[in-house]
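Shipment paperwork, digital attachment
Item: protein structure file
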Amino acid sequence: MTVFIKGRIDSSNAAETENNINEQIGDSVDELTFDASELDYISSAGLRVILRFKKAYPSTKIINCNSEIYEIFDMTGFTEMMDISKAYRKLSVQNCEVIGEGANGIVYRTDPDTIVKVYKKPDSLDEIHNERELARKAFIMGIPTAIPYDVVQVGDLYGSVFELLNAESFSQLLSEGGDVDELAKASIDILKTIHNTELKDGELPSKKQESLGWAEYCKPYLPEEIGEKLIKLFNEIPESNGMLHGDYHIKNIMCQNGENLLIDMDTLSVGHPVYEFSQMYLAYLGFSETNPDDVMKFLGIDRDTSMKFWECSLKYYFEGKDADYINDVVIKARIIAYARLLRRTLKRKPEKTDIIENCKKQLCELVPVTDKLYF
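Attachment content:
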């Protein structure tokens, strides 16, 4: 049952309030929620009422507290003993510019100073708080990232708000004629900072464990010898505690007053850099392989520009390596990319048979001539 508590609860009306709540509850309630959206004040007498209900119904929680009420609960230690949440500011994204879209959410610019990432699932609050903690962790470790400062409600969904004053994504800069070589170099400077950041065991999810699931899922859809070798190759990729962004592309890099910052940190993990390059290959080339126009929909640039950006990124990351070495890295990244894309398409869009058949074809050609997936 949800009980709405309103106005003021203090020594003058605490007993009456408790009686009224008990009358509403009756004998058939297992879980009790107090909605405090219209609660203006609560004294220690009111807190004792809440505490008695908490003892009677251990899962009791309080939702939609305004800032002042939440501070009272926080100062008195109630937030440590029960689930208490703030009311979320309501925000409309109608007619707002869409900066980017990923699997988990859509990023809007709500005004020149602010962007909001709206998560696609209604029950996304845990994901939002997780992304905030990941962004803070990355920031503390020296990764140039924007940290969300607020959580808002957008219709039935929730979003994270970032202050990015007049910031433009690398995608926007490229579409406005920005220098591909210069922006690729700046992108790789950040990427190297990420990959050179070592974490402790268990601090972030392992990309290897996630990727093994891709290979296992794909195996039944491939010739037996290809599927078995694919799993063997994935298994042999060494574990690493180097940080990975996990969704690294030009729409997730923002330029603000000459400073480059990362957004979309919910995919942070640890693992070998080959996983990062497999995702980057998908973003710049793989997703649009069967339909070249798709790169414009995804990244806001044409396929030629996207291909050039990918090639420049490889050049700067593997500076000093010859063309054969870089080509070998690309083959490894492509195998991982096709396994990931095959699984994703089979699960989400099985009607996209052109993508499915292309992934299977590429894996059947590349897996037999590849001895390992790491460099």
